[in-house]
Amino acid sequence: MGVIECREVSKKYLRKKALNQLSFTIEENKITGLIGRNGAGKTTLLKLLSGFIKPTSGKIKIFSEKPFDNLTVSVNSILIDDQMAFPTALNLGDILVAASKFYPNWDSKLAEGLLNYFSFKTYQYHNRLSKGQKSTFNMIVGLSSHCPLTMFDEPTTGMDEAVRKDFYRALLKDYIAYPRTILISSHHLEEIEHILEDVLLIKNGECILHQSITDLKEMMIAIQGKKEEVSSLLLNHDVISEQMIGTDYMQKVIKRHEISEDSILSARRSGLEINAVSPSQACLYLTQERKGGIDDVFN
Amino acid sequence: MSLIKADLAEILKKQYFFKFKANIDVFSSLVGLQLLAVLFSLGGGMYTGYYGGGMDISMKLYSADMVILFTMIWALITSVTITTKPYRNYEFTFVTNRISSSLSNILFLLTISLLAGFTSMLSANLIHVLVYFFIDSGMLIYEQHMQDIITGVISTSLYIFLFCSFGYLFGAFIQVHKVFSGLIPVGIIGLLLFDGMKLNSTIAMFYFNEPSLFMFFIKTIILAGIAFAVAILILRNMEVKR
Amino acid sequence: MTSLYLLVIIGAIAILSIFLISKKIKTTYAILITYSSILLISTILVGFISIEPENIQIESEAVSQQLNNALKNGDRENIDPLYVMKEESFQIDEEKVLTLKSNYEDGLTFYIERKAEDDGQVDSTIYHIGPIVNGHYVENSLEPYELHYSENMLDYYVNRVARLIFHMNTSEFTINQFKHDDVFAINEIHTQAPAVYLQIPKSLSIDRDGDFFIEYVK
């Protein structure tokens, strides 16, 4: 039984479809990356899972319960994003005290430690923090809540490089100590791929891929070389992406299982360069609208 | 990580206490408005004078009526405010559902109504003291029966609570669509003007002229209950947009 | 004395506020606590600065009527000493006519009782019902009236204008709604013209100079 179960979930805003017939299941205690381009429906999905909004059609089950207006889901889940609202009357210290009352698994020691580490003062006010500081503080709340379902929506917005690295490290360490189901949305997969177990890729509100990160790493290969040679090799293959390099050279991307090991070996021998495609590149290829990418606009 | 089964009563209690911290600013505005009303009340109410036969007597009545009216407006504004997006959203940062949010709001409003009713009644004394020391020090004839004070605190709190419930309902309508923020006041004023005395006197007979405190209590609970129930129904399907 | 009280109180509030703010208590709490303490102090203070109404809810007309009847009949034992303003005696010359004089023009009455013998002395009592404000008798210690005797003339005069300022609390509308007796606040000042009761020697003749009533007690 999965912690999150979605069956043909759709969400419409007026006439625009934000999510379209989305189905997937996320198992307990996994870190899943929710990847997609801007407007793919990541935020809408997370809000649905948090019970903030209602699906137009389809079924969502979180811990086997419908999340909308559900107290059990609310107590066991938390959504961290850059629009998290805190009462303006409370300073950071008060907010942490309030959160500790609401979330039964709250880890005060961790919250205090992180607050000190990122040099926050308890008397500061949330609405006077900078964008990056807000994200950092929200992340502290998210980690310390130790909710069985913890969701981060673009958690690193505005954070600088060092803080981002600290954050991912803190997330991983805390996850190992207290395993729980974690969902992180991002459009930078390369930034989070080292902590992920699974990737859920959505495009235009549809789930186009849901598999482990190791599978994704081996999913595609890029073949680079003289234009004619590459084209002739991949004549009958389903090319995911192609790109000209200068005038004579080009690179084409295909799925690894489309081509046999023998062909790869012979291609290598004939001077073609064959590289693995990184998960983030793979996701980029899977979500782009045209094979040629932005270059098509200029051709 | 093990699942925790949510207990509505437990969460209500937490939200209730949380709201006193989160909405603490309503108390500053209460103090500010009541002090302003006290200031306006220093002019006094009905005046009677007598001159003749070696006597020059002047006599003024003072009461906290103005403070109560101001407090009712404060109740209306406060309850509209807590239905607005920022106030609803920060509950969803923590643990809530729509019902528990509204129920804890109602409990919060009930508590502040009692507090405001109490300070409204006591503010009359502040008015007397200020008049005596700063306006003109005459003789203060002060007659107050314990029974009146208790009646006053109860009925004033009920009035304030009723206004809270109307504000909450009004706020809920505004959350559905902003157009209601103009439509409802215009509608109410229009209705009163159009129907004139008839509607006014019906309302007055039903509520403002109710001579029995017990019946007044029952009527307030029913009216406020209806307003809150409708507001809860409206807010129940409200999505969190942040 | 009262301003000293006030000074002490203001000082106490100020110290309390500073104490609260310095202890890093939220300003709002400090405001609320200060306001509440001001209200409570006012409530206590009102008890000190207000005058207790002497008789609660006097029927002002009835009181006047009673006093007049008592004086008319010379039945003075039952008159409330509250209404006695001044008692004086004057040595007079019985042989001459005594002229009563007054500049008071609002219904002053001289009640005159003849004594059993001629003792050369007039005993006077000024009766005055102090203002009754909204049914509360306010003791009149201002005594704006005086009797003066010289050369067979007894002059009753208003020596000054007594200025009285009253403040009164009135029930809020939220209380009046549930009070069945007087829904509308009546603001009423009742004053009663003073009366002078004279006990004169048996055979003294009386003359008058002024616009007032003279009633002889049987």
From TrEMBL, chain A:
Keywords: ATP-binding, Nucleotide-binding, Transport. It comes from the Bacteria. Residues 4-229 form the ABC transporter domain. InterPro entries: AAA+_ATPase (IPR003593), ABC_transporter-like_ATP-bd (IPR003439), ABC_Transporter_VariousFunc (IPR051782), P-loop_NTPase (IPR027417). One of its GO terms (molecular function) is ATP binding. This is ABC transporter ATP-binding protein. It comes from Cytobacillus horneckiae.
From TrEMBL, chain B:
Keywords: Membrane, Transmembrane, Transmembrane helix. Signal peptide: none annotated. The chain crosses the membrane at residues 22-42, 62-84, 105-134, 149-171, 183-208, 214-235. Coiled coil: none annotated. This is ABC transporter permease. It comes from Cytobacillus horneckiae.
UniProtKB/TrEMBL annotation, chain C:
Keywords: Membrane, Transmembrane, Transmembrane helix. The chain crosses the membrane at residues 6-22, 29-51. This is DUF4811 domain-containing protein.
